[in-house]
Amino acid sequence: MRPHRAFVQELLPEIELGGLEAHHLVDVLRAKAGDTLTVFDGRGLEGRATVVQVTQGWVRLRLEETWTARKETPQPITLYVALLKGDHLAEVVRAATELGASQIVPILTQHCVVREMGEHKLLRLRRIALEAAKQCERSVVPEVTPMRPLKDIPTVEQGFVAHPRVSRRLRDAYDPEKPTALLTGPEGGLSEAEIGLLEQRGFTPVTLGPRILRAETAPIALLSLVTAGEGI
Ligand code: SAM
């Protein structure tokens, strides 16, 4: 069985784990002295650690070795995703983490039904990104940023916005050597004015095929074309 993965703030020779990570190790996995696990700092460094002591609410670890993990895309990928109804943003964050997004930026667009995202939701999305990173053995936890309005998106070097009314395919324009920004709209779609603004900021409108995908499926399909499709 593969060793459990625990997130730690810093890979030091001796590590004290508290909070949710310790709770999971002690109460769920029944960790005991002598067990080994993989630790990672969410910024690309991983290591093997041995459990030295388990006390109520705390686990003490000894770091045995460290290495730099190589599971990240060669260039950063930012996913801009419109605010979605219900808990769909959580599904997107989980899958986007598995698919290698480096940053996930919730955006407010003209036709968003949901118009705000509070601190509680942001913290929950960040926790989901961390759990997904652990589960898929990623060594970097993507940053989930606070929501921002679409008009505040910066000019990008290479960007693609999924838009149902175009026929251009991502593969005909995509350059894996460049940082990439991807964007998908809300349930009601993006307005032509928003598409125009995004084009001015360096985004190319691309198709995801002849069927209309749900707003929570589209970001995953778009991201898959870049990472799973290209094998990066
Ligand atoms: N009636 C809306 C429209 O025409 O834009 C449909 C919006 S769709 C449910 C939500 C988002 O998913 C869209 O804004 C777009 O970013 C993306 N999307 C869904 N299906 C797509 C497709 N076949 N090609 C490109 N983008 C698509």
What does this structure look like?
With 232 residues, this protein is of the alpha/beta class. It has 2 domains: 4-68, Ribosomal Protein L25, Chain P, CATH 2.40.240; 77-226, Alpha/beta knot (3-Layer(aba) Sandwich), CATH 3.40.1280. The protein contains 5 helices and 12 strands. The strands form 2 sheets. Strands 6, 7, 8, 9, 10, 11 and 12 form a 7-stranded parallel β-sheet that branches. The protein has a 5-stranded mixed β-sheet with strand order 1-3-4-5-2. Helix 2 packs parallel to helix 3. The longest helix has 17 residues, at 119-135. The model has no long low-confidence stretch (mean pLDDT 95).
Q: Would you state the CATH class of the largest domain?
A: Alpha Beta
Quickly give the structural class: alpha/beta
Helix content: 10-25%
Total strands: the figure is 12
- The CATH homologous superfamily of the largest domain is called SPOUT methyltransferase, trefoil knot domain
By DSSP (H or I, 4+ residues per run), the number of helices equals 5
